[in-house]
Every structure is written in structure tokens, then in C-alpha cells.
Specification:
Mean pLDDT: 81
Low-confidence stretches: none
Shape: globular
Radius of gyration: 16 Å
Number of domains: 1
Helix content: 55-70%
Largest sheet: 2 strands, antiparallel
Strand content: under 5%
Structural class: mainly alpha
Order of helices and strands: HEHHHHEHHHHH
Length: 197
Amino acid sequence: MSDAPQASNLTELIELLEHIERHNPKISVDDVLEAVGRRSFGPVLLLTGLITLAPLIGDIPGMPTLMALLVLLSAGQLLVGRQYFWLPGWLLKRNISRKIFDKALPYMKKPAGWVDKLLRVRLPWLTGYWGIRLTALAGIAIALAMPPMEFIPFSANGAGLALSLLGLGLVARDGLVLLVGFTLTVATFGIVGVSLF
């Protein structure tokens, strides 16, 4: 397993995705994880949120559930102390067409520069050992709720945004962004609860 360069903001993460080898007509989960790295939880969390939010990719039926499974497995392994995230072969082999992937990246890249200007190291204690584990628990809660969200209009978008903020907070070591992500997580559960009951 290779150690990929670590992204420190949203633009750098998208650039890592742009450099996935271009000869393959399909992009697999394994390709994406090799690009962003298997050691760090922040990029994985940010990536699953972005994919859930992205036009074209996030609209594929079952994609939010697939991203939820990725979050669930990686967050669970982080909580038990694993350094690298193990994922089953069938999940790593799941793929989408290169054409769709390449069309979706510009939608992610457009706001990236603006978002990155807002990031800075704030409340760094929230991005330390216990903060990462609290974020993993929030990620697990979101992941468990995502499959039914596919049937509630726009709720998966709220989950995707929450995951993106949680991952971005860890990547940029911005505890304030994490706090916004936690708040959005609670709000998303509130909306889902009202919709279901």
C-alpha cells in the first residue's frame, strides 16, 4: 500500500483526484482511496461527503448508501485503532465511468478556492486524538441514517454536506468547521426525524 500525498485543503484533495491514472475508462473505489490515502480519516470523510453532494455521481441510485458503508467501515476501524483502513474487495471494485467522474470534478473545484480561503487552524484541540474519535462517532451516526435518506428528498444532501464539513475540519485542522459540521449533523437528523414521524 502506497502512502499518497496528504491534502491540507479542498483544492489539494480535488487535485489528487484529478491525477488518478487516465487510461482506465472506469474509476473504482480502490483508485480513489489510493489517490487520497488510506491512512488518514479526514480525506476519506471529506471525499465521501463530496461524492454524495456531487451532481451526476451523488445522483446515482445507491451511491449515498455505498458512501455510508465506506464511512462506517473506516470510522469503525479508526475507533479500534487501525492505522490503515481495510475494505472488502467487492467494495473496492465498485466503480463509475471515467466520463461521469471527470464531468463531476469541475463542479467540486469551482467553490474549492473560495472555501479554502475561509479555512485556518482554529480550536486545534477539536482535531486531536479525542476530537477525531468524536468525529468518527458523528460519521457513523450519519452513515447509519443515510440509506433511508435516499427516500427523503434532499436529506442525503444534508448528510453529504455534514460529512464534507467534518472531513474538511480534520484535513485543515479547523475545529470551527468541525463544530459547524456537528451542528449540521444534528439539524439533518432533526429534519429526517420530522419527515419520518
